[in-house]
Structures are given as C-alpha cells and as structure tokens.
Amino acid sequence: MADPSDSELARVLEASAYLRSQLGDVDPEIGIILGTGLGDLAKNIDVSKTVEYGDVPHFPLSTVESHHGRLILGNLEDRMVLAMQGRFHLYEGYSAKEVTMPVRVMRELGLETLLISNAAGGMNPLYRRGDLMLITDHINLQGANPLIGANIDRWGPRFPDMSAPYNGELRALARKSALDRAIKLQEGVYVSVTGPCLETRAEYRFLRGIGADAVGMSTVPEVIAAVHMGMRVAAISVITDECFPDALEPVNIEDIFAAAASAEPSLTAIMKDVVRNC
Fold first, then answer.
1. 61 vs 55: which has the higher pLDDT
2. pTM score, two decimals?
3. Which three-class secondary structure state does DSSP give residue 191?
4. Do the beta carbons of residue 14 and residue 32 sit within 8 Å?
C-alpha cells in the first residue's frame, strides 16, 4: 500500500514547482495570509505577479464571500512578499491538510516568516468591536490537526514543540508599531472552532471559561503547519463583534464586514511596519 504522506508531499512539490516557474528568479521572503481586515494591504503591494488558485496544481479554491482566490507576489516596504488573497476553512469542507497546503508550499519556496490576519468574536469584557488583538497563544477546538497521519520528516519532527507558536520578536515589532502610532492593540488567546455558525451563549461562557479572549474559525491549522516547518509566525485578529453572553445581540455578516473595514487602516499600518522591520 502506498504511503499517504508520499502523495501529500508530491502534491505540495508539484504546486511549488509550478509557482516557482511563474515567479521566476524572485525569492519572496515573507508570506501573508490576507484574512478579513487586510484587504487594503494588498493595495499597498507593488505587484509583480498574480496567480489564480485555480491555476496551481492541487490548490483548493476559496468559496467564502470576500475571499479572493489568488496569490500576489510583489514588493511591500522594500521586502518581497507572497500574499494569499483568500484562505481556506474546515467549514468549506476541506481537510486540515488541504487548508494548510498553501503554507507548506510557501515554506518549500523558501519563505521563513508568515503573517496572518483574521476576524474573531471578542469574549474578553475589555474588548470592543473594531479592536485589534495580537494573538499570544491559541486553543485548538476544531477537532482536526494538519499533522495527523504519517509525518513527513522533510517538513518537521513527528512531535513539534508548540510552547511558543507566535514568535516573540514579531510580536514585539507589532507592539512597538501600535505604540508608536497610538493604535489600541489588545493581546490575548485565540480559540479556533469549526463554524460556520456563530456560538451560543453557553458556548461563549465555556470558551471564555477555558481561557480564550477571542474566537474564530481559522488560523490555528496554518500556524501549526508553519511552526512544524520552522517558520516564524505572527497573527492579529480584528474583533468584529462583542460576544458577551449576558448582553448578546444577533450579528450578521454585513456587521462583521463593517467592523473589519473600520479596523483595516490600523491593521494595515501595523502589518506594514512588521514587514519592514522583521
């Protein structure tokens, strides 16, 4: 019987080889996952090349509203970046390995740093809609892990250490940027669930009780894969709604987009500073 890890590695290497043929001699240094709240950052990239996800062998396709489906290679703050304009989620029906395939490909292309943004519900009573939260740690409640199955030693160890998945130096740069720019930057623990429905009052109480400050439906699989491969990672959440069980109000996707848009200039400024100085 064929080793399933062989086919996973083969898919990633084929996708990497295709992208290398498209990117030419340019070697991107930093990967960026342009989640909710980072749309403006793409406008700041001096684009050299765009590649549609559908053109990359074995790549998943974005199915979520507001998530474009393309890779952007270009110059940002005098650094060459490779940005994902649109990410993947378990709730779309993808496996954890499929969700994290782009991260594997980035590392195969030589990238060592990964910056991530996402939208999240704020459960810490000090948080308000439109705040930014620098992720200090996470809790994985998705019931899935991209490392399940045969380990691919080329990528990392069977049992990777996860005591500090979010790089301290990158977090310090984000913190300094926020301070210099007088941007309010919360810091806290992100818990990842599958979605796509939002949580009940009881679930918010439970998640807050186990130590989470914000809840979302992404990021953790990508971080696990990146850390497994030795990448430096930083992630920032846009707090798009206030998830306080005793004062919970219904929320819709339009409200979430509006909150993300209000925080976009601040998040873009911090990410640009991190890119320039990391």
1. 55
2. 0.95
3. strand
4. no
Q: Write phi, then psi, for 248 (nearest 5 degrees).
A: -80, 130
Q: How many CB atoms lie within 10 A of CB 181?
A: 12
Cβ-contact 103, 134 below 8 angstroms: no
| In the chain, domain spans | 4-277
Closest C-alpha to 246, from 121, 125, 132: 125
Name every residue whose Cβ is closer than 8 Å to that of residue 252 and which is 6 or more positions away in sequence: none
How many residues can be counted in the chain?
A: 278
What are the distances in angstroms from CA 36 to CA 95, 116, 125, 193, 212?
21, 10, 22, 17, 20
Match 């195969």 to its residue by tokens: 108
Looking at residue 230, its pLDDT comes to: 98
Q: Which CATH class is domain 4-277?
A: alpha beta
